[in-house]
Fold each of these.
Amino acid sequence: MSTLPAVVRTVTELRAFISDQRNLGHSIGLVPTMGALHHGHLSLVDVISQHVDTPIVSIFVNPTQFGEGEDFSEYPRTEQADLEKLATTNTALVYAPSVEEMYPNGDVTTVTVDQITEMFEGTERPGHFAGVATVVSKLLLQCMPNVAIFGEKDFQQLAVIKRFVKDLHIPVNVIGGPIIREADGLAASSRNVYLNATERKTAGQLNVILKNMIKSVRDGEPIKQAENKTTQQLLDAGFSSVDYVSVVEPETLKPMEELAMPARLVAVARIGKVRLLDNMPIE
């Protein structure tokens, strides 16, 4: 049985470990997660291991990025299982702080990012990106990694993080990890466990319908028409509702009226209480 990675829970312990690694001449990588790890998360450790000597994984369910009525209290917390999974990777350390460690009493600073957060997930989940930007800023400044990696499944989140890291001159190289998909193409997500068997079968149609839309747009169908058609196809396939289907410019996420390259298709559809995110490049 593989040895479980060491766990630290305070900034002081984290920085002491990193200082020792720096003294050895090692580069540091950070994989921020909220736990409930699956093979998508593990792939991020594998990718960052190609860039740095010492990969660190953080596990922290961040309360400030959950909105009213969202699943913060129900979000799966599976630290022991997460550590067992990380034992199969090159993870050098797990940083698993408490809420009190991340947000000490009297903490009043919030990081907000304009423009790129004022659409899509920012509209659907008010305050979400301020919570993300604040906690990621904290993690980057606590760890000061050479490289940090975030999954491309949360494409808008990745774009927001790249933006504020650039704007705030935080000296870290932010990279994206490819979306990991299940056998039927559904993007891997910690929330997929909430789907029952019937819902799970429907969920597998999301990526298929989006791929068909990309083909239609590339073949010349007007973008708005394709977006509307795809929304209806998702509803017909059994999705409860569709938050958005949009072709966007990858860095700014501004919706495109006419196809230009590069482009990204972003979408969120719901089955019951589960929100399924997906995105694909249009190449």
Amino acid sequence: MSHEKESARLDTKGLYCPEPVMMLHTKIGEIEEGGLLEVVATDPSTKRDIPKFCNFLGHELVEQREEDSCYYYVIRKGAS
């Protein structure tokens, strides 16, 4: 990660829709508002689902990248 240290990390490699977003929903509830969560996934549908999740629930998608057949997301938790 290039900028700030994440508060938590969620590895969803090998899981398929809807599991990564369900796990994300649970994990983001465990961190402080303003905290960062890095998510690693292999399911291409997360490229659509995770930005929609953030937009719908008021979280900031700080970073989104694809590397070595994995998708990486850094999410800043918004106000609950």
Amino acid sequence: MPDCPPLLAPLLSLFGAVPLDCLQLRFMQQALLGLLLLCPMTAALGVQVVHFRMAFFSDAIGHSAFAGAALGLMLAVDPMLAMPFFGVLVGLAVMAVQRRSALSSDTAIGIVFSAVVAFGLAVVSRAPGMARTVQQFLYGDILTISANELVMLALLGLAALIFQIAGYNRLLLIALNPIMARASGIRVALWQYLFAGLTALVVMFAVRAVGVLLVTALLIVPAAAARHFARTAGGLFWWAQLISVTSGVAGLLLSAQPWLATASGATIILVACLWFALGALLRHDAVE
């Protein structure tokens, strides 16, 4: 693996030792590592997105990937650099509109979402040749993730881990009662902007895995499914982690089987939805 960073080579070799034909392929090993890095982040942030009642937020950020990629192509900038930068700007703009107006979070997100989509379409309309290139972000493809992107994802995962350790309880209190959080000495605005920026970055990588059309599901479905199994706030976090990681791994491996041969992103979300259906069924039986 000459083009693989030294820190990643042992992990990829470990995946190759698994007795599955699909994991003998380099791109499948990189895809699996990418999902193992990405899914814990989307699970943790998905729980907080649900707490903040901002499910539409990830959709707005996901669609900003389309606009960011188009803008990057127009300015001759690598779309993989333009997308995160533009996504963070959109995330911060959503939080700013929400904080500085009397609008509800859904309304604020809807306004920014509309502006982002219209901007992306306007940019693409100026250069119709971009449409085919930008279209790949609609569906995503974790199988094409590069070694450099894995390194970036690992660094983002480290930042997300530090953020969760420092801010999980603070964000939970802010979601429950921002006035009480402010009275407790928590810098509410700072944590909300940090949350928006980090979520935007994670969503940009999630678009790489499942595409704009399914990026919201990658955040929301595991968190929603976890509610069926968890009894505490801490339990909700860990159940979301379990559901997200198992959905990512199982979805990737299933999609690679010749008898199924489906898109990996769609299969990952379908496995997560099966978790949700199982939880709903078990909870219904428990209630009865």
Amino acid sequence: DYVFDGEWSTPYNEEQFPSPVNHYGYTKWLAEEYIRCYKETWRIIRTSWLFGGEGSNFVKTIAEKSRRNEKVAVVDDQVGSPTHVSDLSLSILNIMSAPSGVY
């Protein structure tokens, strides 16, 4: 999230050079660069739109509105990849034994 500006018409991949959308994205990118330069082995995991577990989130909100047959109004200028926290947790366990890289 935020390390890319959203100007591409196709999904981003791990090899693409970041183009931060704002200062927050820029600092995330700087942190990635720091990790790459100062750690012998490293893994950077880029994720966004987490859902699951406790609390509210986009997926739970949409599902609840759908169950109640309520009107759903959302922005249409954002694209994301919702990621369930359990799936992310399992992926992180696998990534820990993988080579250094961006995942």
